[in-house]
Amino acid sequence: MKKNTSFVSKKTSVHIKIAILSIIAIAVILFDVCLFTVIRNKDRAKVVLYPAPSEIQGATDRIITVEGSPVFVYDTAVNFGRVYSRNPKLEKTPMAYFDFSGTVNVKIKAPNIDIDSVTIRPISLGIVPAIKGDTISFKLDKPAQLTIEINNDIHRAVHLFANPLEEDPPELGDPGVHYFGPGVHMAGSIKVKSNETVYIAGGAVVYGWIHCSSLENVKIIGRGIIDGSIYDRWDDMVVPINLFSCKNIVVDGISILNPAAWTLNTYLCENVKINNVKIISARPNSDGITTQSCKDLTATDCFVRSWDDSLVVKGYDKDVKGITFDNIIIWTDLAQSCEIGYETRAETIEDIYFRNITILHNFHKAVLSIHNSDNALIKNVHYENIVVEDAQMGEGDGANYLIDLLIESSQWSQSSERGNIRDIFFNNIKVLSGRFFPVSRIKAFDEDHTIENIHINNLEIFGELILNAEEGKFSIGEQNVKNVEFSNK
Amino acid sequence: MKFKVWITSLSLIILVGIIFAAVLLFNMPEAEIISVSAGNSQESYVSAEGIPQESSNESSTLLEPASISGENLALYKAVSADANIQVYYARNSVDGNVNTYWEGASNAYPNTLTVNLGETVSIKTIRIRLNPKPMWGVRTQTFSIAGSLDDETYSTIVDSTDYTFDPATANTVTVDFDAVSVRYVRLEFTANSGAPGGQVAEFEVY
Fold first, then answer.
1. What does the pLDDT read at residue B87?
2. Complex-level ipTM beyond the 0.85 threshold
3. Which of A50, A104, A187 is the closest to B45 by Cβ?
4. Band of the pLDDT at B60, cuts 50, 70, 90?
5. The pTM is what?
6. B21 CA to chain A: closest CA distance, Å?
7. Are B182 and B153 in contact (CB under 8 A)?
8. What is the CATH classification number for the domain harbouring B188?
9. In a domain, B39, yes or no
10. Under an 8 A CB cutoff, do B42 and A201 touch?
11. All domains of chain A, ordered by start, with CATH?
């Protein structure tokens, strides 16, 4: 009997040994797998840094490193005024960029600042930094355009543009290439012909402008900066990139800072591809990406912070068809974020898509708006997957609109005939937080100039699903507005 | 016996795993960091033809047109256009600032720009100015000049003519004609080689 017990206990102890060894073995294997993944990512990690030209004065209150190497921090103009003025007071904000692949460690030091909290936007990326004294650190494993707000200070928010690596950049001396290498260039007017490329290398700061008229197959690419800060808003009015009647145009990878008027304008153009363009503007009428009477224009993976409308579709004369904004990050200091109007003198403005758009902050006017103040029929417009992280609309002389659909004459009207609005789709619209619950407006002109078929699906404001006009604080014209439908599909 | 095999093989796995981890840890690779060398200030750029371009300084001498005797009767007077594009309003054409301008609606000729002199006066010269900065390039604009006493009936003062605007000649065009009494002066543009609409930085009447 006794013998038997001891046999059983011996057997049990062997079992326990095996169990413990198994657990250790599994732990070791898991550790190895993790280690291997980390090493493989490290191995793939590549960082390209672009030191700034020596005469550029950078920001000193934010020090950035990637994988331990310093990244130059520019200091560029921004504007916190919430009322239009001809000579607004400007401030400056830090901006930095680099290219990378793999997984990299980013550190940002704010000397002598005791960091309590950090908000890295877009919030949806879920980047939670480690905070240690005056330094934060976080990992990036894919290209991103971020703002980093330390202790809730939006005035010195870091604008960090982590680009993908460049693919086959042109080389100095390549035929048909206007080559701007690293350094400061007082270029003035950059005269481009069809089938040519303007290459602005990382580390270049170009003071100048590219105005194209009736050209085809032009590329404006690189990682460098077009800076408008030396030009006067009222004397020079230089639009950094202004394309008239052009076809097959690519604008990719560059940054445009402090333009003296509009920033990137397209008028009567066809087949325009804008990708990974970063815009920060501050002065009067410095709209971000403006498109007028264009066909087949797509803007993808862009960052637009502007002191006037961020993304604008207008119809100056010819029709507008096929405009897509996809994966755009917006910070609107003044006016609207995603605007169609006010100039709508085309016969039709149709097939417009605002997709996957994150509005980090909007301080002034409507986030999503159609202002039909001329004669156009505006139809088939889609606003999809829109996130408003910080809804502060209504500051200054603004209005607290989330959605504003309006047919009315305005100071910009030139046509005495009024237009119509049809088939507008809002799908997955989220407002995360804000000062006040935003209102919305749908207002037509008269019985012959109406707004019809407005589909609002999955609208969520401050965590509340909106299923009718009352819940969403919508004011909807009783006559002349037909078929407004709220749903949750 | 069976248990011994288990214990031995598990121990082996653990041992190999630890060695593997140690090897990996000792051979931790660094991320590849490329720092492009910083450029110099005031670099020239290389044009598409492979030619280095001189840095230009826009504040170089700008030409002023010769002065005209008499007073510019249109300065700060009421002005209107049939249309304008963007922020290029008609009032920019009578504000005494050659840097701001009016531009008519694009590809919608004729574009008209009309100034109300406030009272009926005798006029004999019209001067049209554009910004003299080199960025404005040479262009030809085609326009006619008409006058009216009541803003309803207009009679032609100068027929439609091609005029060349060139920064080398201060980007200014002066048109003299026999004196005529009018209150309203209208320019009617039908072509512009430099833009899709008529452009006027200053509309001067003497």
1. 67
2. no
3. A187
4. very low
5. 0.79
6. 6
7. no
8. 2.60.120.260
9. no
10. no
11. 48-163 (2.60.350.10), 171-487 (2.160.20.10)
